[in-house]
Amino acid sequence: MKIYYIVSSFDEGGAEFIISDIIQFLMKMGHSVTLFGCIPRNKEATILLEKNNIPYYLLSENNQNRYKSTYSLHKFVKHSPPDLLWTSLTRATVDGQLVGLWNHIPVVSWKHSANSLSFRLFKTILMQKLTQLWIADSTGVSYFLKSKMKVSPDRIMKWPLFKNPPNLPKASIWDGKGIFHIGSVGRLHPVKNFSLMIKAIGYINYHYPKIGKRIKLSIVGAGKERKKLENLIHLLNVKNVELLGFSNNVMDFLSNLHLYLQTSIYEGLCIAVHEALAVGIPVISTDVGEMQYSFRNNDIGTLIFKNSPEILAEQILDFFYYPEKTQIYSKNARLYMEQHYSQESFEEAGNAILNHIENIIIPRYRGLK
Fold it and tell me: For helices 90-103 and 119-127, what crossing angle results, to 10°?
């Protein structure tokens, strides 16, 4: 197949950073893939693309008219029609759906998060039938597509967007001595709710000052919330919290942690959490995304059910006080990831989707079945 793969931007989010793996897999399976980005944003994701020799085209610049990217994609398609438009994230999906409709080309779309809080969802519900196949990156997103976006089950398939990287480092297992190093990775955006982590550390420092001196929180990521988070750190005087900025070597950062936090308001699979688990780091997460399913019956992480600094702080302290708990969860996390997110399972899910597209979607769309 000739595939045009369209992403909303080349920002530093998890969905953007998995692009290289997906495109390399599609090409390995013998397909021709051309990558487009609707807008560049901060272009952090292009570092991996360039490292893996994957070319890309920009459909518009950051401050141009919203539908400049739609028009540019339409021009590409008219000049050289593909067999399939494959979209990732909302803006790219809307562009792909419109261009696919105008040019009678089938559209396959990723859904990466269970976000029901924005106007974008309403717009996507209205247009969801313009996508012939929705691909959920997790169990929770699959349920969201069915229950909230009203997509029929026969138009949904699941492909978990993570596979264990080769040569994984091992986490620094907490032994109760020295500094208890906590961390998180993600774009500095309100949806990631990093302020909850900072407030939890402030709570520990105030109520348990001796322990606070033995805890450090490091946050890796860039984004528009940096100034706000810096102000909160200053206001609470939490000197044991640091904002490290963007990093293109996340695995090395993770390997030095004892505990990982994910306080998002909503998520899908959440690549960062699964990277932490793969390294062998216990996770505390809000009850969102894939974590609400995988953590319930597996001692790999802990869920919190309220947006409460106090509750998060007490869960952090539970791992701090009981090193043996950290050790058990760390061992279980690595085993869980080996069992559920191998290279083989990643390719098996991808092949099932490709077979469905080639044998069902495209023939049906062309009126051959």
Answer: 30
Structure tokens at 104: 């009678």
- Side-chain half-sphere of 77: how many Cα atoms within 13 Å? 30
Q: For the chain, which domains are there? A: 2-163+342-365 (3.40.50.2000), 180-340 (3.40.50.2000)
Q: Cα torsion for 213, 219, 225, 229, to the nearest 10°?
A: 0
Does this model's pTM top 0.85? My answer is: no
Check residue 45 and give its pLDDT: 84
β-bridge pairing 283-286 and 156-158: unpaired
Structure token digits, residue 336: 């869980």
- Amino acid (1-letter code) at residue 131: T
Q: Which residues contact 82 (CB under 8 A, 6 or more apart)?
A: 1, 2, 3, 4, 34, 105
Helix axis angle for 323-340 and 309-321, nearest 10°, is 100
CA atoms of 85 and 97, how far apart (whole Å): 8
